[in-house]
Amino acid sequence: PYNFAFHSKTQANDYPFIKKPIIIGNGFRLDNYIFQDSKTGPLGWVGRVAPEKGLEDAVFVADKIGEKLKVWGVIEDEIYASKIEHSFPKGTIDWRGFLATDKLQKELGKCRALLNTPKWNEAYGNVVVEALACGVPVLAYKRGGPSEIIQHGETGFLADPDSKEDLLSYLEIIDRIK
């Protein structure tokens, strides 16, 4: 009683009236993931397809460089998904649907980068950890849990929130991540 627990410090900071938050990060069985080193694979995006996840920014990046974006996740908001699909050239989005962890990690591990584009302070960022466990660097907005998980310049890059131009510039140097 009288305590609040959060997944990240950034999430807790959204509630300034809570004086002593408890931070409880998520746990992962990393042996469920196979480390792959794909420098030439596709771009990926994973999450619920809903406005707060910012899929349109990731599709914008893929479109700007003339590539398809592999998208895994449940389409929670059909109207939102349709609007994005119709805002970009046909075939820019490669809808992959929701996959269980064992299947997702095999596909995700083939990507050269995961784009993580939340429009809010993501509580934690499970998909960021999953991508990193597969050996996939992450380009994310410096917002929420992902900003605490990604080591800028070492495991991925943190772009200014909502800056698609930052994402594009970091994508140009993603191969520097070892």
| SSE sequence, one letter per element | EHEEHEHEHEHEHEH
Spans of at least 5 consecutive residues with low confidence: none
> Main sheet?
6 strands, parallel
- Shape verdict: globular
The percent range for helix content is 25-40%
Structure class: alpha/beta
Q: Indicate the radius of gyration in whole angstroms.
A: 16 Å
Summed over residues and divided by their number, the pLDDT gives a mean of 93
Give the strand order of the largest sheet, numbering strands 1, 2, ... along the chain: 5-4-3-6-7-8
Report the total helices: 7
* Beta strands, count: 8
Distance between the termini: 44 Å
Strand content: 15-25%
Question: Quick gist of this model?
Answer:
This protein has helices at 9-13, 55-64, 78-87, 101-108, 126-133, 146-149, 164-171; strands spanning 5-6, 22-23, 43-46, 69-72, 93-97, 113-116, 138-141, 156-159. With 178 residues, the protein is an alpha/beta fold.
Care to describe what's here?
The chain contains 7 helices and 8 strands. The chain has helices at residues 9-13, 55-64, 78-87, 101-108, 126-133, 146-149, 164-171, and strands spanning 5-6, 22-23, 43-46, 69-72, 93-97, 113-116, 138-141, 156-159. The strands form 2 sheets. It has a 6-stranded parallel β-sheet with strand order 5-4-3-6-7-8, sandwiched between helices. Strands 1-2 form a two-stranded parallel ribbon. Strand 1 (5-6), helix 1 and strand 2 form a beta-alpha-beta unit. The model has no long low-confidence stretch (mean pLDDT 93).
